[in-house]
Design a protein that fits this description.
- The complex is a heterodimer.
- By secondary structure, chain A is of the alpha+beta class.
- Helices cover 46% and strands 14% of the residues of chain A.
- Chain A is built from five helices and four strands; from the N terminus they run βαβαααβαβ.
- In chain A, α3 runs antiparallel to α4.
- The termini of chain A are close together.
- Chain B is mostly helical.
- Helices cover 72% and strands 0% of the residues of chain B.
- Chain B has a single domain, classed as Formate dehydrogenase/DMSO reductase fold, CATH 1.20.1630.10.
- Classes of the chains: A alpha+beta, B mainly alpha.
- Chains A and B meet through β2, α2, α3 and α4 of A and α2, α6, α8 and α16 of B.
Chain lengths: 174, 463
Amino acid sequence: MSRVLMAEFDSEDAILSAARLLRARDGIRLEAYTPYRVEGMREALGHSRTRLARAVFWAGLAGAGVGYAMQWWTSAVDFPLDSGGRPPHSAPAFVPIAFELTVLFAALTAFLAAILRSGLPRLWQPVFEIEGFERASIDRFWLKVGVHAADQPELAQELTRAGALRVVEAGGLR
Amino acid sequence: MTPPGREALADRFPLSGPLPSDERALTDLLLEPVQRPAGGARMALLALAAFGTLALFGALGWTFAIGVGTWGNNIPVGWAFGITNFVWWIGIGHAGTFISAILLLFEQSWRTSINRMAEAMTLFAVANAALFPVAHLGRPWFAYWLLPYPATMGVWPNFRSPLVFDVFAISTYGLVSLLFWYLGLVPDFAAARERCRSPRQRFWYGVFALGWRGASRDWERYRKAYFLLGGLAAPLVVSVHSVVSLDFAVTQVPGWHGTLFPPYFVAGAIFSGFAMVLTLLLPARKALGLENVITKRHLDSMSKILLVTGLIVAYSYGVEYFGAWYKGERYEAWTYFNLRPTGRYRVDFWLMVTCNVLVPQLLWSERVCTTPLLLWPVAVLVNVGMWMERFVIIAVSLTQDYVPSAWADYSPTWVDYSLLFGSMGFFVFLFLLFIRWVPSIPIVEMRELRAEHRHGAHRGART
């Protein structure tokens, strides 16, 4: 049986040191909610790097391929059109559109990956039910700690010692 | 290592004025423009801009109903106000992308206070620009013919034509600019969702914030996506206007046919765009009371870019003239040495030279760069000059090309003027709605900048 604690901090230094303190423990899951991207937070929570860049790279490559193949197939295979005596497969002239489609595919992937992989768009999130959580998008830093029920009281005390303004148990959160 | 002179500049013009140290107060300060109703002067300007918008759409309706014959264009001047407006507007958009993408990649922290407004300007400029080629098609309801779709006749677009490059370049540019702008806004909408007073605002900002909660994993993805979009948008600045310049450069019209065109047009685009950013920003900064956020340092930095790109444009004019003389091609020599400086459109030409070459030289003076009342007229004149440049290149070159029997003069009609001034009204209209409804200073980026400074100060104290 596991529980979720939410601890509120008033500075990035406080939440970072609390995260570093808990990170090494067994059976603890950490997530932080902050008003801006805190430098070093990913390492402090022990999260892995995002693989978004790799997806964007492949999408860009696909865009280039689709862009070039579309122009080649329509102009040189399906309906060769003699335009000013230029060859049906005019490679240099196909570069600009292939480039634009590279950018388009990559950009769409970057945007959609950032939004969809974060579970957005949503009108409501369970974490919004916590009283005072709205300040997570203004000036407060919240640490979410997933823990075994048995360790819960001890951990709440530890979070308070680490500088948490308050610690609440969040029943609905996983 | 601080480069010489940098220290002194930072001392004289700090990046921000006195701002509240409390994050909540800072957020409220930056959200103030969307909370406070606009004053009388802004409403009057909005009414004027709405009138311009009506003029634009009225003239567009007239064009669609009757045809492009209502414009002054006729062979040999097949391209005139419409394409001039298109190139002018799309160029203006480039400064927004330059500020938001290229300066982001170079970690120029001064971009933070101005990038949102500049990006919004890009979007509105692209929206305006896209109207003109479509209206110019004559039968705009067939605009989809430009796209590769399996048509009954089996024919595809001619992918060797820069006009088809344009379709892909402009639509990609518009979409990427929109995504970049919106992605930057998501966490700011989340801040607005929590801090705005009226329930209606809280509801709508909540919807547009998409349920953003600021989880660390989300921030990592967000930041990566934002930088990648910056990296992807940066080459667009170069590619889009290069493609636009190819519309002219690949033809054989004297005055159009030049290999210089792509870099020349890109520099001109950034030049005109920075002029437009200043034209909008100087009044907005005053009206919204943002003098501590958009400081003299920002004005100074933007003026420097305006000056540098202005010098590149002046140099390009020089190279064009050198080419016209050196090639010894009589038709081109006629265009450059007779038609433009002494012909019927000489006023437009000399206005272009004055506004684009002479006026920016005032920016060597630090006083001009940091005094809004002196800087604003410079920016406005550069806008005028850049419009004239496009007109001189596009329409004037066409009036007299090879065979004198095919020459003809061009004069715009009331529809042309309505479209030009109407599009300016539409642009101002959209911008006014934007500063009233959307957080126009990036709140989250301001927080990050302050956090960085705090840490920098810590480190400085320790070492």
